[in-house]
Design a protein that fits this description.
Blueprint: H1 2-12, E1 17-22, H2 25-33, H3 40-53, E2 57-62, H4 69-78
Parallel strand pairs: 1-2
Helix pairs in contact: 1-3, 2-3
Length: 101
C-alpha cells in the first residue's frame, strides 16, 4: 500500500521522469516482472503498474534498506510529525546524508 501511495503522490506532484526505490524485493519484482495473480496483493500491484504506465519515464528499483539511508531517515522522522509534511528545501536532518544515483 505504501508503494502505491508513493506513486500516487509523485503523480500528483506532476513529475514525469522518476526513479523510485523500494526495499521490498517482493513488491519491486511483482511490479517489474508483470506476474499476474488473484489476491488483494495483486490488486495493489496492478494499480501500481497502472500508475507507473502514466509517467513518461519511470524506473522502479530495489535498494537494500541499509543502502537507502535517505528513505529510512525520512520514514523515521515522519513518525514524529503530526501531519504529513513536504519540504521544498532539504531539511537539516538529511543534509550530509549520502545520496546514491
Amino acid at each position: 500500500m505504501g508503494f502505491m501511495e508513493a506513486l500516487s503522490w509523485v503523480k500528483d506532484l506532476g513529475l514525469q521522469n522518476v526513479v523510485i526505490e523500494g526495499d521490498s524485493k517482493i513488491v519491486i519484482d511483482a511490479i517489474n516482472l508483470n506476474v499476474e495473480g488473484v489476491s488483494a496483493f495483486h490488486d495493489v500491484i496492478s494499480t501500481c503498474r497502472l500508475l507507473v504506465s502514466e509517467f513518461n519515464n519511470c524506473s522502479i528499483l530495489f535498494a537494500k534498506r541499509e543502502a537507502n539511508i535517505m528513505a529510512h531517515t525520512f520514514a523515521r522522522v515522519s513518525r514524529v510529525h503530526e501531519s504529513p509534511s513536504w519540504w521544498v528545501n532539504p531539511p537539516d536532518f538529511v543534509v550530509g546524508l549520502p545520496v546514491t544515483f
